[in-house]
Amino acid sequence: MNVSSPTSGPPGDAYWQRPDPDAASLSRPPQDQPATPEPPAYPGPPRTDPPSVHWRPPTIATPPEPRHMPGQNMDAIEEAEGSARTVTFGVGLVAGAVALILICLLCGRALF
Hints:
Layout: H1 74-111
């Protein structure tokens, strides 16, 4: 692509003017398009065989009644929860005391 004006030719702005509409076309000649072949007719999916009569597993018409849950001793459950809470608080207090003693020792060592 030449973007500079020619050194010889028509003077002035004649080089930049549109071409004469009656002049011969400067575009490419039309090209022959290849013929597209017709797509083959789709006959559809193949037929499947019907399923066997025994294709489902056997089912039980009436399931047995559900079993009864054993009774719960609410007093024993409350006592176990109380003792577990006591153990948890005891372990937490001991861990907190050990952590406090360690912090005091480390801070005392850093200051003195």
